[in-house]
Automatic annotation (TrEMBL), chain B:
Gene Ontology molecular function terms on file: ABC-type transporter activity; ATP binding; ATP hydrolysis activity
Protein name: Glycerol-3-phosphate ABC transporter ATP-binding protein
Record bears the keyword Chaperone: no
Gene3D superfamilies found in the cross-reference section: 2.40.50.100, Nucleic acid-binding proteins (2.40.50.140), P-loop containing nucleotide triphosphate hydrolases (3.40.50.300)
Residue ranges constituting the ABC transporter domain according to the UniProt record: 4-234
Entry keywords, A to Z: ATP-binding, Nucleotide-binding, Transport
Highest taxon of the lineage: Bacteria
Any one of the GO CC terms: ATP-binding cassette (ABC) transporter complex, substrate-binding subunit-containing
One of the Pfam families matching this protein, by short name: OB_MalK
InterPro entries from the UniProt entry: AAA+_ATPase, ABC_transporter-like_ATP-bd, ABC_transporter-like_CS, ABC_transpr_MalK-like, ABC_transpr_MalK/UgpC-like, Mo/tungstate-bd_C_term_dom, NA-bd_OB-fold, OB_MalK-like
Keyword Signal: no
Length: 313, 369
């Protein structure tokens, strides 16, 4: 009887053991699968699809397009002067905006970190540019630069910066400054708020100890404030560089890449290629190049940061 | 090293007065402890000496120079903060040398000074470390080292031991005292811990509500507290207080009649009239447990027996008031039983209930006044 029950039970146990083992392996994947499916569906698939367009001839108005063209788009890119100009403009646009956004944002953060009447109100107001849709900010700034309806050209004439009021957005040499100024206005709050948060995390006693040790305000800034801000500065600069390089809204609204492509950046060039010329294949190839460039930039910044923190410890 | 004079120093934040006219003379090389509950103004006073807070009115001078308008860096003082305030991105050596480097001291001089101080504080092996790689006690030492390296006129300590555990605190207490003896530097030390005040101070300055309540040596403050606040704040376990009215028996004995009619004998005091409202103060070690009422004991109900190792604390109620009694015996009275307690007549403090001031005994011969 004993052996009978044992032999009767054994296969059942073995089967149970196997299915338990199997379900043990599969179980965690089942738990994460909804998230995985979502990520694959909304992030990975479009990315792969977009990258695949770069190697295909996809023109919306040509029903016969859609074939595989290999690296033809990339070969065309190398000799596309408009693209090369857009690359140079992207660098100008990105670093021109970034430098002033960061510099003025830091100054604003330092000012907001002081005690003064109505500080909370001002801190809230600083966020205001973010509450305005970019599209509207772009239109507003475009109007402000317009001498017919906007005050800026008249002010600049009064200050002696212009011989007579004219629209800088229509001057190929100056047009890029229009969206850059709008972008600076738009980007300062980001730096001001993140740097202010970092500033407020610095213990007050450190400044007191330093002032007793004999440090002047400037020395305190260099030996306490900057080292404390460094990690925040590194990460925000990196994020912001990538965001600005991809950020074509203001340019599209204010200058539409013109005059004479003088404000065309890679992101707006992609927009132009895809939605004006309806050449999705070529636009995807440009996007792929931009992706690789930004990835390379991010990786080098991360490597630099790691090297710095490594020598740090 | 220098003396520090504080004359009628006041501090207000808007309409709120934090310090109401502080007068204090700290002599050269003295170790002064400012003690009081939180919010009494002791840290504010220290920060005014350091130059981290403005002086609303009055004058503070260090080594004979009025420093009211001087920047902290020009006062030649060093401060040890409760949080240590070490520069987190600098090594121990850099932390300690920062002040000297700012003064453009020669490199060799700096490294000599640092190795000397590191030797004294046992930090030699840690000089290359960052503060975050140090234990609380080590950080505390670095903060001290940073102060010592500069050879300032005076050291200011703002509750430097509050963040340490009890054992380490005890150890650092003695170390700071030894260091003070070795360096002989004028020191002002702020604490809310009356044990630190008692064990470390040359003189204690007891503060409450922005007013100095009493200045004196630890023994003076303990044995002759100026008022009820000082009496209750200094001493652990704290002094017992009972309220009653003053009665005169004869030339050598007076008494305090408690609310329940019991009479506690005290030495006559000069400034009390019969019937005056009196608060009687008796330290737990000045109350003894006696056999019965015949030996002059008052009946008291046992509430709790608290063994402390070395001694035992007996909690009783007398005339409805809680009383703690310190004894070296090992009593085992059941809770709610009655025992008889007697007060040491010569050691009892008599306070005027209205003014809260201590009334010294009339005949001073042979007893504490």
């Amino acid at each position: 009887m004993n052996t009978g029950t044992q032999t009767g039970k054994l296969p059942v146990e073995r089967r149970g053991g196997f299915s338990r083992k199997f379900s043990g392996i599969i179980e965690p994947y089942l738990y994460v699968s909804p998230a995985l499916v979502l990520i694959i569906a909304v992030m990975l698939m479009p990315l792969i699809l977009g990258l695949s367009y770069a190697f295909r001839d996809i023109r919306i108005l040509n029903p016969f397009s859609g074939g595989f063209v290999g690296t033809a788009h990339f070969e065309a890119l190398i000799s596309d002067q408009a693209f090369l100009d857009a690359l140079a403009n992207t660098a100008w646009w990105t670093f021109g905006s970034l430098l002033f956004q960061f510099g003025l944002g830091l100054v604003l953060a330092l000012l907001l970190n002081r005690q003064f009447l109505g500080r909370r109100l001002v801190q809230a107001l600083v966020f205001l540019p973010w509450a305005v849709p970019t599209f509207l900010s772009g239109l507003n700034w475009a109007w402000m630069f317009n001498p017919v309806v906007g005050p800026l050209p008249h002010w600049m004439t009064s200050l002696g910066l212009m011989a007579e009021p004219f629209n800088i957005l229509s001057d190929p040499d100056l047009a890029m400054w229009g969206p850059i100024i709008a972008n600076i206005w738009f980007g300062i709050p980001f730096f001001a708020i993140t740097l202010l948060a970092a500033l407020q995390s610095i213990p007050k006693e450190l400044y007191e100890a330093a002032s007793i040790d004999g440090a002047t305000t400037r020395q305190q800034f260099i030996s306490i404030t900057l080292p404390f801000l460094a990690p925040t500065i590194a990460i925000t600069l990196m994020l912001r560089t990538i965001w600005i390089a991809n950020f074509a809204d203001l340019i599209v609204v204010m200058t539409n890449g013109g005059p004479a492509d003088s404000t065309q950046i890679v992101a707006s060039y992609i927009f132009t290629q895809a939605f004006r010329r309806l050449d999705f294949g070529y636009a995807s190839a440009i996007a792929a190049v931009l992706l690789v460039l930004l990835l390379a930039y991010a990786l080098s910044v991360i490597a630099l940061r790691r090297a710095m923190t490594h020598t740090d410890s | 090293m220098a003396s520090i004079q504080i004359e009628n120093a006041r501090k207000s934040y808007g309409a709120v007065d934090v310090l109401h006219g502080i007068d204090l003379n700290i002599s050269d090389g003295e170790f002064i402890v400012l003690v009081g509950p939180s919010g009494c103004g002791k840290s504010t006073l220290l920060r005014m000496i350091a130059g981290l807070e403005d002086i609303t009115s009055g004058a503070i001078s260090i080594a004979g120079t009025v420093v009211n308008e001087l920047q902290p860096k020009d006062r030649d003082i060093a401060m040890v903060f409760q949080s240590y305030a070490l520069y987190p991105h600098m090594s121990v050596a850099e932390n300690m040398s920062y002040a000297l480097a700012l003064r453009k001291t020669a490199k060799e001089k700096i490294s000599d000074a640092i190795s000397g101080v590191a030797e004294i504080l046992g930090l030699t092996a840690l000089l290359d470390r960052r503060p975050k790689a140090l234990s609380g006690g080590q950080r505390q030492r670095v903060a001290m080292g940073r102060a010592i390296v500069r050879k300032p006129q005076a050291f200011l300590f703002d509750e430097p031991l509050s963040n340490l555990d009890a054992r380490l605190r005890e150890q650092m207490r003695t170390e700071i005292r030894k260091l003070h003896r070795r360096l002989g530097a004028t020191s002002v030390y702020v604490t809310h811990d009356q044990i630190e005040a008692m064990t470390m101070a040359d003189r204690i300055v007891a503060m409450h509500d922005g007013i100095i309540q009493q200045v004196g040596s630890p023994v003076e403050i303990y044995d002759r507290p100026a008022n009820i606040f000082v009496a209750s704040f200094i001493g652990s376990p704290a002094m017992n207080f009972l309220e009653g009215s003053y009665e005169i028996a004869d030339a050598t004995t007076a008494g305090i009649r408690l609310s329940d009619g019991a009479l506690i004998s005290v030495l006559p005091v000069a400034d009390a009239k019969p019937g005056q409202a009196i608060t009687l103060g008796a330290r737990p070690e000045h109350i003894s447990i006696v056999a019965d009422a015949q030996s002059g004991g008052l009946p008291a109900k046992v509430e709790l027996i608290e063994p402390m190792g070395l001694s035992t604390l007996v909690h009783v109620t007398l005339a409805g008031k809680p009383i703690k009694i310190f004894t070296m015996d090992r009593p085992d009275y059941p809770v709610d039983s009655f025992i008889h307690i007697a007060f040491d007549m010569a050691k009892i403090h008599v306070f005027d209930t209205a003014s809260e001031k201590r009334l010294p005994p009339a005949n001073a011969a042979g007893i504490l006044t």
